[in-house]
Every structure is written in C-alpha cells, then in structure tokens.
From TrEMBL:
Gene3D superfamilies: Diaminopimelate Epimerase, Chain A, domain 1
UniProt entry tagged with the keyword Transmembrane helix: no
Family, as annotated: Belongs to the PrpF family.
Stated name of the protein: 3-methylitaconate isomerase
InterPro entries xrefs: PrpF-like
Domain of life: Bacteria
Keyword Hydrolase: no
Organism per entry: Rossellomorea marisflavi
Any one GO MF annotation of this record: isomerase activity
PANTHER family per the UniProt record, alphabetical: ACONITATE ISOMERASE-RELATED (PTHR43709), DUF453 DOMAIN PROTEIN (AFU_ORTHOLOGUE AFUA_6G00360) (PTHR43709:SF2)
UniProt keywords, alphabetically: Isomerase
SUPFAM superfamilies registered for this protein in UniProt: Diaminopimelate epimerase-like
Length: 376
C-alpha cells in the first residue's frame, strides 16, 4: 500500500506527518499502521521511516477542523522503537511547531501574509495551541535568523502559544492532589517529588536526591542510574493512575516524563558551549522514553514554567520567577519561555521554534489498510 507522507522537523524533533484521511479508516488499526511505516519494533528501525531515536520516532495526524475557532485538529503519536506500542496519551511541543507549516503547505488553512495564525486543537490533551507562522508569496517562509539549541543553522521563527495548559492529560494540575508527594523508591530511600500536569504530566525530582548535579549530559547517565530514574517515574505513573508500577514502562512509557531539576550553576552543553549560572533560572534534565533527552521537550518547558508560578512544589526551593521570562538550562543550551498573565493567572505560555519540510512523497506499507479515501 502506498500512502502520502511528509517528513518534517519541528524544533528538536522529527516526525512523519499524515493527513487523517489517509490513515486506516478503522481507528483500532492506527497503532499497527504506524508501527509498520516506522519500522518498529526494531532498535534500528531499519525497515521503516523511524530514526532509531525517540526524538525521531514520532508521528502527527492532521485534519482540517469543523469546530468553530479551530483551524486544525492534530493527534500526536510517540512510536516505540523496541516495543509493539504507540503511545497516544500525551502531546509533543516540538512536533506541534511543524503542524502550522504543514497545514499551510497542504492547503488546509487560509494563508494571510506576512503572518498566518493557525489555531490547533491537540486531540491528545484537548488543549489549544496557536502557531504564528511567517508566510512569503503564499508559502511558508523557512529562511531566517532564529536559532534554537539542538538544531544546526537558523530558520524563520514560529511562535507557539499554549493556552490554559493545566490538566492536559489528567484534568488536574496536581494529578495526585498534592504539590509534593513523599515517594519511597526501590532502594528504600524516601524523596520528595512534585507531579504537575500542564501540556504534559511531569514528575520533578531534585538532582541531589538522586545522586546527580543537574549539569549532566546525556552520555553521563549510566544504565544503573537510568533504571533508578525509571523506577521513580513508574511509581509516579501509578500515583497518576496511568498504570501499575510494574507495567508503567510497557503501558505508559511516555508519561509522566521524568524531570530532574537543580539550582542554577555553570555548565557545558553538548556542543561544548559554557553557560553561566547568571543566565539561568533552573537547570533541567528530562528523560524521553527512558533515555536522556538531548535537549528539552517543549511540553516539558511549558509544564516547568507553569510549576514555577505555583506555590509549594519542589521547584519553589530553587526557582524564583522575577518577571514573565523563565530561562531553563538543558543539555542543548538555554530555552526561554514567556508567560502571559491575566489577574495573576497564566493565560498562555509562548515559546519560539523553527521547523521545515524535509521530504514529501509516499511510504510503502508491508500490508494493505483501508483508508477513509479508499472507502469513499
């Protein structure tokens, strides 16, 4: 079967973009279909489009929306590399940054120059994201001077605003009902954690409580340390009601996301650039599908920014917000978020990304699926 597909980079992620009409008409076949085209399960994803990394094993399913005030409906899929699993439970902010450009290029929205605003409903979280995309001569502008850590070169800026991101997956900003939970780990120690749900659920732990500095780079995490962190994340998944501790790695591998925080200090990023404590509000290290994230997930930055404005979480110990900008030091560099406040409440959080189309063509599946187009 030959299916139209677009491969796009969005922020520090890369994924396969599909029009919903080309997906299997039977929704129960979506997981099998996405595993098929991505080449999973296989650590190399040698027989599909996946890039053998959680940041490049992603898919976006897009359709024009008939909902008033919404332009595009977008479903995110995290395709497991080594397991027979596709996780639809959360969103990806980086992939979200390419949804607006995809919709414009595919003629799904009306173009307005020089800036087209695309209102996107993420169906995973039922939250609205507004993407502001630069347009020139009716096409998405890709050239520009905007740079983001973790992506070589520069491009045209895409402004993403996440509105009312709280309770994206669980319906509550504190999934357990508590700003801090005391968790007994597999090693028998008891540590404070904060589980916060905004854009995606994250479980925050202090670096010092898990024997880390907070300045570590991805290659610095040993297999033993990753197993320890996954034990904590799995226990948090159970507290959220996503899966039992024993089944969390298999059934809920993507959320909550393990997030290690530490006070500002000087550190060297993955390309050898030194960042100074004075330029950072918080050090952050995230896990993605049980592996260290090379940079920082956008939804992670949104959730961390939200948590920074809450009282009594463990972030309150190290992060004091002094305005509407939050600066997060991650392995790839420093990410800034900007907060829109109305009467002391966060109405939206904005980040800047770049994105571009890499390939447009067709993917050949290993078996036949009936799509909405074929059935029509």
């Amino acid at each position: 079967m030959k299916v139209p597909v677009v491969i796009m980079r969005g922020g520090t992620s890369k994924g396969v973009f599909l029009n919903k009409k080309d997906m299997p008409e039977d929704r129960s076949l979506w997981e099998e279909f996405l595993l098929d085209i991505m080449g999973s399960p296989d650590q190399r994803q040698i027989d599909g489009l996946g890039g053998a990394n959680s940041l490049t094993s992603k898919a976006a399913i897009i359709q024009a929306s008939s909902i008033e005030g919404i332009d595009i409906e977008y479903t995110f899929a995290q395709v497991s590399i080594g397991n027979q699993l596709v996780d639809f439970s959360g969103n990806c902010g980086n992939i979200s940054s390419a949804v607006g450009p995809y919709a414009i290029e595919q003629g799904l929205v009306k173009v307005k120059e020089p800036l087209t605003a695309v209102r996107i409903l993420n169906t995973n979280t039922n939250k609205v994201i507004t993407a502001e995309v630069e347009v020139e001569d009716g096409r998405v502008k890709t050239e520009g001077t905007t740079t983001i850590p973790g992506v070589p070169g520069s491009g045209s800026p895409i402004y993403l605003s996440f509105s009312n991101a709280e309770g994206a997956v669980t319906g509550r900003v504190y999934p357990t009902g508590n700003p801090v939970d005391l968790m007994t780990t597999g090693s028998g120690s008891t540590i404070p954690v904060s589980i916060v749900d905004a854009a995606n659920p994250l479980v925050f732990v202090h670096a010092r409580d898990v024997g880390l500095e907070g300045t570590e780079l991805p290659e610095d995490f040993s297999a033993e340390k990753l197993a320890e962190l996954e034990d904590i994340r799995s226990r948090a998944a159970e507290l959220c009601g996503f899966a039992s501790k024993e089944d969390a790695t298999r059934l809920s591998p993507a959320i909550p996301k393990m997030t290690i925080i530490a006070p500002p200090k000087d550190y060297v990023d993955v390309v050898g650039t030194t960042h100074h404590a004075s330029d950072i509000d918080c050090l952050i290290r995230m896990m993605s599908m049980q592996k260290p994230h090379q940079a920082l997930a956008i939804t992670g930055a949104i959730c961390t920014t939200t948590a920074a404005f809450l009282n009594d979480t463990i972030l309150s110990d190290i992060l004091e917000v002094k305005g509407d900008i939050v600066r997060l030091g991650h392995p790839g560099g420093i990410m800034q978020t900007k907060v829109d406040l109305i009467a002391g409440h966060i109405s939206a959080i904005k980040v800047v990304r770049t994105a571009r189309t890499i390939l447009e063509g067709s993917v050949h599946t290993k078996k036949e699926y009936t799509s909405a187009v074929q059935s029509a």
